[in-house]
Amino acid sequence: MHEVAIIDYGMGNLRSVEKGLQRVGVAAHITRDPTRIEAAAGVVLPGVGAFGACMDNLRRFGLVSAVRRVIDGGVPFLGICLGLQLLFDESEEFGPVKGLGIFRGRCVRFRDTGEPTLRIPHMGWNRIHKRRDVPHLDGIDDGEFVYFVHSYYVVPDDPALAVTTTDYGGQFVSSIACDNVFACQFHPEKSQAVGLRILRNFGAIVAGSGAMARSSVSVSSA
Amino acid sequence: MLIIPAIDLKGGKCVRLLRGDMAAETVYGDDPVAMGRRWVDEGAAYLHVVDLDGAVSGTPGNAAAIAALCASLPIPIEVGGGVRTAERAAALLDAGAAQVIFGTVALTAPHVVGDACRRHTGRIAVGIDARDGLVAVEGWTQTSAVTAVELARRAEQLGAARIIYTDISRDGTQQGVNVAATRAVAEAIGIPVTASGGVGSLADIEALRACEASGIDAVIIGRALYTGAVRLRDAIAAAGGAPRPVSGGRPAC
């Protein structure tokens, strides 16, 4: 059964992500059980709130190893919002606070310039500019609008990680990809048809991935 | 400019009122999520949801429907109506609301709004509903002696991210938005304003777009969408197409 596990660590509105995935035909369940997470065919790490609180909760619920093992094991992994930021070395939010350190780089705050069109948090619809093609963005045109709510953004050490950038007082990295990981600063579950397409693409990747070969259930059409 | 369809809930059903009169309701559907899906399918990038029962009584009356909307629809949703406490605001944000709207307490208990704005920066809006320029509260059943502009200034001071301005006498009438009054509020403050009440045709959207520089960057459409006087796709096109970009795009004053 190639189900996607949505990690529940007490941060983020998981129901929207679950409903979004289900809407595009992806079987998904919310769980904080490391065993279920590590057995899933695909994993989503959502996240809303402060970086430090998210890391504390991941630790408190004993989920840090599970997240690392899933990523190291090549399971299709989708990080959303804080779920992107946490993958990096650290954040300056009430920090510096250490992250999972899966990717080199840090999270920094948008500068408060007082400019009325550049309020913090960056909240609203904005465009993603595709820097390279990945299957997660199949069918998504350059410049499509997606929905953001955040005050911090990732600055990867390796610019090649960036899949999309977005303009908010200057270009920032709005999504990254590396092997089995795709993570976005915006909320696909709140980004209308474009967001649902990204979730559908993730589902297709999960269905077509080697993770299926690990399960003892025979392949069935979704 | 963002076009925002409205879903007003009364007893779990989608209704439209005339000038806020709870006795003058038209029921447009009994499945709010289905209604929301319809607007999403027609291109909505944002929704405005009001708990009318909560607005009048001060006690939320449509919590389940609101939670279902926030969970089921793939777009951000702002929620108002009877939000009188910090706890209620936090609960709505936890349920997935993108923004929470305070109405009455912005006037009667501003510390509640200020507190919520500090806790949830950017996620709190203040709804200012006016009759002849004076703010009305408690589901529009009581008119105060405070002007809309004065309350808008106070709300900005409290840290509100946005003002949603409704002209009560136009609401549900499809007789045209009160552009002058909305503009007066927008020009008095530095935070953005959503216009609401009375949209009856695309001309209203064009009229608002013409003064976007004043700070009006969104408009809520209610009855006109339900009667078919305005088609959502046409309204979105008239407002400039795809969701308004967050950065740039604002015409020079």
Q: How would you characterize this protein structure?
A:
The complex is a heterodimer of chains A (222) and B (253). By secondary structure, chain A is an alpha/beta fold. Chain A has one domain (4-214): Class I glutamine amidotransferase (GATase) domain (Rossmann fold, 3-Layer(aba) Sandwich), CATH 3.40.50.880. Chain A is 27% helix and 30% strand. Chain A has helices at residues 14-23, 34-39, 51-60, 64-72, 82-85, 192-208, 211-214, and strands at 4-7, 28-31, 42-45, 77-80, 88-91, 97-98, 103-109, 122-127, 129-130, 145-150, 152-156, 162-167, 171-178, 181-184. Chain A has an 8-stranded mixed beta sheet, sandwiched between helices. By secondary structure, chain B is α/β, with parallel strands linked by helices. Chain B has one domain: TIM Barrel (Alpha-Beta Barrel). In chain B, strands 1-4-5-6-7-10-11-12 form an 8-stranded parallel beta barrel, surrounded by 8 helices. In chain B, a hairpin with a 2-residue loop joins strand 1 and strand 2 (13-18). In chain B, helix 7 packs parallel to helix 8. Chain B is globular, with a radius of gyration of 16 Å. The chains are: A alpha/beta (222), B alpha/beta (253).
